[in-house]
Description:
Blueprint: H1 11-25, H2 30-45, H3 50-53
Helix pairs in contact: 1-2
Amino acid sequence: MSALDGIDVDPVDARVIFLSRLAFIRPLTPEEQVELDQLLAAEKAQPQSQEALQ
């Protein structure tokens, strides 16, 4: 049994977390850094939901 059983995890969020934690262990390769930058930029570019604005 895993600690995450029954929890929906967004694959994009999981990838951002993985790359961020990997950066603490070793320098990211240029490809990994570009991927992380793109994921973070896409996350910032998403419009906020109306619920978050209320």
